[in-house]
Specification:
This protein is α/β, with parallel strands linked by helices. It folds into two domains: 184 residues, 3-Layer(aba) Sandwich (Rossmann fold); 180 residues, Rossmann fold (3-Layer(aba) Sandwich), CATH 3.40.50.2000. Helices cover 45% and strands 16% of the residues. The strands form two sheets. It has a seven-stranded parallel beta sheet, with helices on both faces. Helix 3 crosses helix 4, helix 4 runs parallel beside helix 5 and helix 8 crosses helix 13. 44% of the residues are buried. GO terms for molecular function: glycosyltransferase activity. Its EC number is 2.4.1.-. InterPro entries: Glyco_trans_4-like_N.
């Protein structure tokens, strides 16, 4: 007869556009029929939720309604524990900090196994939140990081046993990425003539993304007589300040703020190389997509960036908050176009070989079976 399908819940904060939400969708699409999948959220909204419905899932919502330090949080934990029991859920995979606040205690009350996803280095959290998250991870049955740097932090700084931490890199659907690239641009791009273009894809919500360093590097190149245009994809409350800085540095004519775009693959196709100059990262989907586009990526030596880019082979790696190093890396790529193309080809080959969706789903499948049903499942 075989075993019953494994009753698995994927729990994320919402289905607004973001790297975490996209990875959850890929798991929902890719996991085999040996699962009875359900979805839960804190907020049942966002442009990606239509794709969840199309897959046949109606997310169960456990809304926090503001601060987590209020009676409603305990009530949602209670509601979810009852829901897990009623649906005989065997395993919950929770993907973000706020959902973890509900999912881990609820799973423990219900007697359900729980896996926590850690997708960044908690760089945006204060001391109290980091302590809470660390405690919840120690309560969980297993923790998945998407980069070696996260695994290292969990073991050395937060005290988790190595046996309870796994690294599973994000996956990228190359055929779908290529299809989006072939669809072309969905909006106009600035005319840069024959000048080279660097693309930076990141939100403008938090200083960790350090778009300032990119602007300073461009200004240094301008001072030395090199014109390099930059397409900055993304938006947020920091954009006006960055636009002002570009003006002060004298690079407003070559720095183009594109805001949110849904045609990133087509934009990358028009770039000479890509960049991500953050001071902290998990496994960056922006870097993965740039590599999938066949671009050499210039990244900072933080978090999961070095899981993706091997310096001098698949791109260039520089120290964070060093605009002069960024400028020098740009000069190197511009001065050696054949080498740059070779690194871009190696980057794409790496994505196809190591970061396929099939590999990502297969590794999650094996871990789910082991945690929920034992090593011999």
């Amino acid at each position: 007869m075989g075993q019953e399908p494994l009753r698995l819940v994927q729990f994320t904060r919402s289905f607004h556009i973001g790297g975490t939400e996209v990875q959850v969708l890929e798991l929902l699409r890719g996991l085999p029929a040996s699962y009875r999948l359900q979805v839960s959220v804190l907020d049942d909204s966002g442009p990606l939720i239509a794709a969840v419905w199309k897959l046949g899932h109606a997310p169960a919502a456990f809304p926090l309604k503001g601060s987590v330090v209020q009676p409603n949080t305990a009530y949602q934990v209670y509601r979810m524990a009852r829901w897990l029991k009623a649906n005989r859920v065997e395993l919950v995979h929770v993907h973000d900090f706020y959902s973890t606040m509900v999912a881990v205690p609820a799973a423990k009350l219900a007697g359900t196994k729980v896996i926590v996803g850690r997708l960044d280095l908690a760089h945006w959290q204060g001391r109290a939140r980091r302590a809470v998250q660390s405690r919840l991870c120690r309560m969980a049955d297993h923790v998945i990081g998407n980069a070696e740097a996260i695994r290292h932090q969990l073991i050395t700084e937060e005290g988790l046993p190595a046996s309870r931490v796994s690294v599973i890199h994000n996956g990228l659907d190359l055929p779908r990425f290529e299809s989006r690239r072939r669809e072309g641009l969905r909006g106009p791009l600035p005319d840069t003539g024959a000048a080279p273009v660097v693309v930076h894809v990141a939100n403008m919500n938090h200083p960790v993304k350090r778009q300032e360093d990119l602007l300073l590097a461009l200004a240094q190149l301008r001072h030395s007589g090199i014109t390099l245009h930059a397409f900055l994809v993304g938006d947020g409350p920091r954009r006006p300040g960055l636009e002002k800085l570009a003006g002060e540095l004298g690079v407003s004519d070559t720095v183009h703020f594109l805001r949110h775009r849904t045609d990133v693959p087509a934009i990358y196709a028009r770039a000479t190389f890509g960049v991500l100059c953050s001071t902290a990262e998990g496994m960056s989907n922006a870097v993965m997509e740039g590599m999938a586009a066949g671009l050499p990526m210039v990244v900072t030596r933080v978090g999961g960036n070095t899981d993706l880019v091997r310096d001098g082979e698949r791109g260039l790696v520089v120290d964070p908050e060093r605009p002069a190093q960024l400028a020098q890396a740009f000069r190197q790529l511009l001065a050696n176009p054949e080498k740059a193309r070779s690194m871009g080809h190696a980057a794409r080959d790496f994505v196809a070989r190591e970061l396929s969706l099939e590999k990502m789903v297969r590794r999650h499948d094996a871990l789910y079976q082991r945690i929920a049903r034992g090593a011999d499942a």
